[in-house]
Amino acid sequence: MSLRGTRRDVWVSSLLRTDLVAASVDDIRGTVDRGVDVLAHGPRISFDLGLQLALMVRAVQPLDAEWARDAAERLASSRPGERALRELGA
User: Fold this and answer.
1) 61, 54 contact by CB (below 8 A)
2) Closest CA to 49 of 83, 13, 86, 90
3) Contact yes or no for 79/69 (Cβ under 8 A)
4) N or C: which end of the chain has fewer CB within 10 A?
5) Residue 1, pLDDT above cutoff 80
6) What is the DSSP letter of 44?
7) Spatial distance between the Cα atoms of 84 and 58, rounded to a whole number of angstroms
C-alpha cells in the first residue's frame, strides 16, 4: 500500500500522540535541532526532512510553546520546503 501526500502526513502525525511526545520530548528537541542544522548546512537529502521536523515541532507545541516558537523560526529560516512552511503556518 502506498501512502502519498496528505494521507501519509496525517498518518505520520497520528504517531505523535501527546503521551508519546511527552515521554520523548528531549529526544524530539535534539532531533529537530540536528535536522535544522542539516537543512541549513548539510547535503541535500532525498526525503522531506523539513516536513517531518515541522510535524515534530507542532507536536511539542502544547508541551513547550516557547521552544516550539523558537524551533519553528529556526526551521523556517533553514529553507525546509513549502510543505513544512504550510505546516508551520509560515
Assistant:
1) no
2) 83
3) no
4) N
5) no
6) -
7) 11
- Grid coordinates standing for 43? 547535503
* Separation CA 48–CA 46 (nearest Å): 7
**For cell 529556526, what's the residue?**
74
For residue 47, which of 1, 8, 14, 13 has the smallest C-alpha distance?
Answer: 8
Query: Rounded to whole angstroms, how far apart are CA atoms 24 and 6?
Result: 25
C-alpha span between 80 and 86 (Å, rounded): 10
Rounded distance between C-alpha atoms, residue 1 and residue 65, angstroms: 36
Pair 39, 78: CB distance under 8 Å: yes
